[in-house]
Amino acid sequence: MRALLVLALLAAALPLASAASSCCDVPAPTAAAKSADSPASRAVGHPLKGVIVEILAAKSSLLVEHEEIPGVMSAMTMLLKVDAPTLAAAKKGQSITATLVKKSDGWWLESVTPVISP
Q: What is the pLDDT of residues 20-56, one digit of tens each?
């Protein structure tokens, strides 16, 4: 019985350990942010500049090569989820600005805007 309890505790700790070693330093939510009624419960957005490398409609995602987001993550190419209207408007090779948001199911792009070249 004691061995089962130890195994259960270890299994519960694994997701916490992997979350602590993630690639991105996103501040932990405060007590106020944990309240569903609080405005602080909304996800924090980070400005992003990048280029759409690929459109993955089956995953409702864009593969985006983006610049460094200071305090959040290094410059990299990553898969980012988007809503249906954004997916429909996206064009491969298009430069964009957007807001990067960490949600419970991954990283999302919101307010995606094409960059118009002069």
A: 444 555 555 544 444 444 444 567 899 999 999 999 9
Please answer whether residues 48 and 99 qualify as being in contact, where contact means their C-beta atoms are separated by less than 8 angstroms. yes
Query: Is residue 102 in some structural domain?
Result: yes
**Considering the domain boundaries, does residue 6 fall inside one?**
no
Domain span at 51: 43-114
Cα–Cα nearest to 61, from 74, 52, 69, 51: 52
Count of domains for the chain: 1
